[in-house]
Amino acid sequence: MEHQQQFPPSAFLQCLLCSKLYESPKILPCLHSFCNQCIEKEFCNKNITTCPQCHESFDISQKELPRNIYLENRVDLYLEQSKHFTDPSCIFCKLNTQEKKEAVSQCITCLDLLCKECSERHTSTTSTIDHQVVPITEIKSGKYDDKILLVKYKTYCQKHSDEEVWCFCKTCNSLNCSVCIIKDHKGHDVDRAADLIKEKENETRILCQGLKDKTSELKQCRDSLTLRRNELKKLEEKKVAEIKKMCSEAVSKIDKGQNKMLNDLDNYLKPKSKDLGKGIDNISAQCSNISNSIQYVEHVLNGMDVRKIFLFDELQGRLANLDEKIKDSIPFTDFSHETGNIDITVTEPKLEMTFDKTETIHEQTNEYGAKECSLSAAADDDSSDFFYVCDKAVQTSEAEFESFTENKNVQKRNYSIKLLISHDLSSLSDKHTSYFTSVAWIDENHFVAVDAGNARVKKCPFPLGTILNSTEVTKPLAVSAWKDGISCLTQENHMIIFCNNLCPQNTFQNISCLCPSLPSSNFSQWIENKTIVTQRKNNVSKLPIACFPPNGFPVFFRYACSLPNGFYALSDMSNKCVYLLDGKGSIFKVLRCNPGPISFDKFYNIFIADFQNSSMKVFDLKGNHRTDLLLTHRPRSISILHDKLIVAAEFGSQVFVYDIIFR
Fold this sequence. Notes:
By secondary structure, the protein is α+β, with helices and mostly antiparallel strands. The chain has 12 helices and 36 strands.
């Protein structure tokens, strides 16, 4: 301990959990290490492990965590150095002259401690001419620890302690000396350890360099986003102040009207409530008298001898008297006329916000009672519309949108898609072959996918395509995302609600299918027993589906989508068609196409995946066919955000991201 106080260890050699030097360190899949004892105490034999440092989760139930041999050696080296460097002495002077001289340098080739004179002579012999002598101050800084480790810690054979290992048996996955190779590994695939290490080092360095290059790009992107966020923050602060001032004035007027209405309501209802209270008290007293009398009568009936015959007249008389009083006390009239109808009329203040002097956000109601979405119509509440939420690079201009929606002669060639990137979402922890049945955008930088092969839901960043987080779900089928979380539908018709970090929050049963909308929506929707269910926080509303199948078969909804104008699109697998429903749940259009997953793009055109033909059909909100788009793989699931299409294909562990192009 005294040595360690004079020669303190670096944070690199200290366990994050116990803040002490590593003892038998084990390494997690994320490459963070902790003491073996700390890991056992922290995780308590849990199968799912979350790293205390980076909070990434792993399934370690099937394998033992490997030792971190590098850290073990570094800790041993530090302990030895902290002891020897407290009062270092020259090894040559001690052997030759028995004199103790202070060592000022160390040879990192032979590890000898040297005084000033011996340091100058050390490289003057033929056997030591190539040795490297460095000051002890630099040794203490840890600059040469890795070189010292290579010299100090050599690996010897477990069976032949005097033989250094130099071969690696790929068949047995073991390091071996020359004796073991001859005796125990005849006919095995054996390679020189140095050659294999060099090959693996080159591969690893290539991976490291690739990540460094991507990290540089990410940092540039982060700086750009930070600058943009700061600008938005300043704009937000300015506009928030203006909005609060205007709304405060409106709220003040509303408060005055509220106080007056509450006072009028109280004066109107209080007398009626008082009269009803008197009736309640009277009936309560009658109930108490009846209960006491019945209790006494039952005691007499059950606990008295033959002489109770003399009491029947009195008992029956009392019960008859109580019965008469009941008839007088219970009001058999309808009290609804006491209050009548109370109508409340509120003239709402009109709140309007204009962006770029062209895009006005307000709500209109069409003939079906649904919200119309034009260039000036935003989505409901704070489930933000693309036109003012997304970056200008992916927004739709007014002229472009009107040209697209009003031109009835748009040619099919105006729409096209281009493959941007594909992501392999399999991982080393997967126990089975991955295949994906559903995929959905969470936001512009993340998406979520259902790996049915491994019964897991995986959250991934875009465009990197690595796995940020995953969770196990029994028989997962489909997934959707909204502002407050992620929904996962299982093959057993259960729906599990997760927060954005994939922590389960709630479970629902008897769910037919999910009904996704914008990932920025503040509500979640699904279909249950031919009813569209909408949940906003703790409020739930239901919309019955007035469905009359064209082919006469019972409907089977497998896919659905909540459109931005308040309408819905539903795929009926039984009748082989897709319905367009208005805001009242009534069918106004039947699309004769193969039913499949449904999404919509930034122009609010409907995309329906055709699994059989490896394509997608595109319709406008009225159900007019726009074009067909061919895909490279048969789509199990599609999701569109702005102009980015992500597809989960039929086979393999990859998902594909396309750029949707409109000319």
